[in-house]
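Lay summary

Proteins are chains of building blocks that fold into shapes. Our project writes down both the chain and a compact code for its shape. Here are two examples, one after the other.
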Amino acid sequence: MARTDAELVAATLDGDGNAFGDIVRRYQQFVFNAVYHYLGARGDVEDVAQEVFLKLYRSLDRFDRSRPLQAWIYRITANQCLDEARKSRHRRVKNFADLGEEEEERIRRYFDEDQHGASLTESEDDETLRLLRKMMDGLPEKDRMAFVLREIEGLSYAEVSQALNTSVTAARIRISRVKKKLMVQLDKILGSRQGERP
């Protein structure tokens, strides 16, 4: 039977090296995906993900075991991504490059829902995805992180709020504001392009 997060943390602090390996295996997919979607397809994604787990390991003795470990991991991951973005501000980061089918489908559903059931043609949908990738670069760092965690990684508003150390209400407002901003930009771009057509 698999050990709980709390049992793995306790075992790690007692010197069981295998226990921390189990924690890494349990959360590595989330960490890697979040880093990749935030920073883009760059060679340092693995390094950043490793840094997240190194920080987790070093901070386990300060971790409040009455709280969920995954929330602690979400926060460390978000902070590490924000730190990396600040360090490399001079470079424009391409987010959502080379999205997998599952992520593309999630974004497609997101736009379908936001347009109140209005469906896009396949070519218009592909164009929407391409434009979204470009527009994400213009978002403030915390807005981009909130959007990645909620809309791409599928975290709840409560989990996003824990990761960003804010209230659930603030997380909802931030994400709603980002979605509206992206939709306004998309409407302008797509509207102007339709006006250019004969």
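And here is the second example, written the same way.
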Amino acid sequence: MNTEIDTLSRQIRSLLSRVCDSLAGLSEAQVNWRPPIAGSNSAYAIAAHTLGNARAWVLGIACGQPVERDRPAEFRASGRDAAALLADAARLSPEIDAALSALAPSDLDRRLVPSPVLWGEGEPLEISVREALLHVVEHASIHLGQIQITRDLALKEA
């Protein structure tokens, strides 16, 4: 594996692990609690969305694997506890590692236009595989912070 690809793989998998760690120990009420602000999401929903985005962008967009995504369902996700999300992340992490291990360094510069279903909001733009992977790092980092804040509020409120 290329050093850059290895670094991106480790960073993405570390962020997903930290997302899961942020859910540890939350009760059903806490993991599903939503701040009393219009459009807010629970820690569970944000985590489900973060995992869905990583799957779509790494496996589907960057690595060209057949991946389906229901982005609106990610935001409706809820559960009795975080166990289902933790199991999903435990399966996803080695899939990401294996898929990225199969990339050649030159693949990072390959240009593509992602499918609208995998892209998310708005019209897909032409991007490189590198840009797709960096998007996952940025996206997971932002949502990790949101999960941590939501967790802290839920521990106080729920």
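What can we say about the second shape? The first helix runs from residue 3 to 23.
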